[in-house]
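Exercise 7.
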Amino acid sequence: MPSKAALVSSPMQPTLAARYVNKTQYGHILFDQAQAQAVDVLDRLARQIHERENATVAGTFWARLTKARSVSVDGVYLVGDVGRGKSMLMDMFYEYMDIPGKRRVHFHAFMQEMHQALAGQHKQSSGTDDPVTALAARIAKQYSLICFDEFQMHDMSDAVVILRLLNALIDAGTVFVVTSNTEPDKLLQHHLGREAVIPYIRRFASHMQLVRLRAARDYRRDREENKAAWITPADADAHARLDTVFSSYAVGPAAAARVKVGSRVITVPTASGPVARFCFDDLCGKPLGANDYLALAGSYGVLIVDDIPRMSPENYDKARRFITLIDILYEHRICLFASAACEANSLYEAGENARIFERTASRLEEMRSRTWFAARHI
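Solution. The predicted structure, written as tokens, is:
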């Protein structure tokens, strides 16, 4: 029998629900009934995973060797409007899970990694092997729990490959906890050819407990605003104020810079030390993608963006890149300063994809708060 120290959890460990209540009692967060109900679901999942992992640790040599996960455990799909605390709850759950082989990752970053890994898998395969199945087997050996923040799909070709991979991981025993603003049956809702993806979506959803987080407030909007972070309108005065911001972070003279992304290079118009400055069209008017924005987020702690315009369905390519950019800056906790045509919640006109942009507007509200900047050490 294994010692208590060998087990992945202790019976004396406070429950996740107790930790949530403690955070509310100490004033770290405000109590919210919808959040508390979601925590109860996550608490049950935590117990199921711990029991399964402990059974594996306590089992036979063969079970340990193969990381057998004979007990099926469904994951959790946290869905709700922006700013309702989905990511906060998932992070609490992730920190609480004292198990080996866990990972928390933004879904954008995961997709980019998987595309690169699949390209490598294709080169290694004999031609008859399914690279998706082979990659799933590799990942399942590393991770028994994966937490995705901002689970969203915008591209049909990505969706088929990624959903096949996720379903293969579920078959191998990996458990998922995801946050999303979109319910599973509404993913890729307005895309042509969606019927080809529906079976993969339904299969994935069948292994997830859907938890609708109907919190009453957008907690991101409750924070004190840093008026220097988002300047409207984008006029000469705004440009001068952003000059001052740049100077305050600069280390040495400003100059153009280059950031390598694979075999390509992104030109940074103006940079110095931890700060880089772009106009909106440099970042979102060119064919850049998540890999490019990840490289910038890894190179600079402060980003200044001039002249963000209003966007609409007619120029959704730019809006889509902007959404991806903000997701990555948010995930990497980058300090953003910007001049814009209007406030964040008015940047995108009503119409198709307006709901997707609500999350971006909410994140921009949080990223201009004093709390956001106080937590960064640039």
